[in-house]
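Handout for the seminar on molecular recognition.
Each group receives one record of this type.
Step one: identify the two inputs.
Step two: read the structure output and locate the region that could contact magnesium ion.
Step three: write two sentences on what you found, then compare them with the reference statements printed after the record.
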Amino acid sequence: MTIGTSVDRALEILRSGGLVGIPTETVYGLAADASNPDAVRRVFAAKGRPADHPLIVHIADAEQLTHWAAEVPPAAAVLAETCWPGPLTLLLPKAPHVLALVTGGRDTVGVRVPAHPLTTELLTRFGGGLAAPSANLFGRVSPTTAEHVHDDLGALVEYVLDGGRCPVGVESTIVDCTVDPPQILRPGGIPSEQISALLDGRVAAPSGPSRAAGMLASHYAPAARVLLVDDSAAALSLAAQYIDAVVIDRTDDLVEYARSLYADLRRADGLGTSVIIAVMPSPGGLGHAIRDRLTKAAH
Ligand code: TXA
Ligand code: MG
């Protein structure tokens, strides 16, 4: 694998059906031409991802949305208009040409416009959509630097476009706009409160068995055992019981907590620690997504 900043090189690989690691504001994606079945198959093979877990289609701007979605309900139009480019994925009825491989055989498609200058340039010049899951091995913590992508997929992917450290650090918020009211399926980089305010409160929280495929209880898991506590004092007294515990506690700054979370988990694993003790933030704003990922890491 080569790590570099050449959009030309990335384009050349994507146009010939290859895979490229791409930076986004949330986490790095493993991108393939969404209209090329062989390329999309390579994504599943590289990640070791089950075929029924659909991929998000990344597009350059909101104008391309009608190419991928058969219908854009008013709520989706409002969210796209206000939140894109940004950490929001909309689930919509898929246009007929969208590959079943991309949607996991469903009649819906997940679409988002990422906010990262290198990837915006790449998408604009590419012209089409890029199907991209997070660029980690299946079930592992998402990558927030090009080195993380290299660590997971080094032997399997030719090129990673290096856009530095992802500024948001947790994945996009997924909103299912095929139901009324729309439902948040995955808390993420855009707080639920903001989605709710934009839709005048007409939004359902994640509830029951989530209908987003692949939302397994155990996901985003480091190798070490993760223990969750409610405050710093509890973290310290628990840590005293282990010889090699790593404590993660950034509850005083949730933006930094989200940005550093996956790198912190990877670093602790790199040290060979057996226990990670993480302090849960309160649930408001980004706290919702951080709590969700920590809970999954601890499962
Ligand atoms: O921030 C993000 O969303 C990152 C960056 C790379 O864009 N991508 C990401 O992709 O997190 P992935 O594949 O790791 O997670 C996407 C989730 C999966 O749980 C997938 O099953 C769900 O979205 N999903 C995608 N399309 C769907 C669809 N049509 N119906 C139901 N769930 C869908
Ligand atoms: Mg993922």
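Reference statements: The longest strand covers residues 88-93. DSSP finds eleven helices and 13 strands in the chain.
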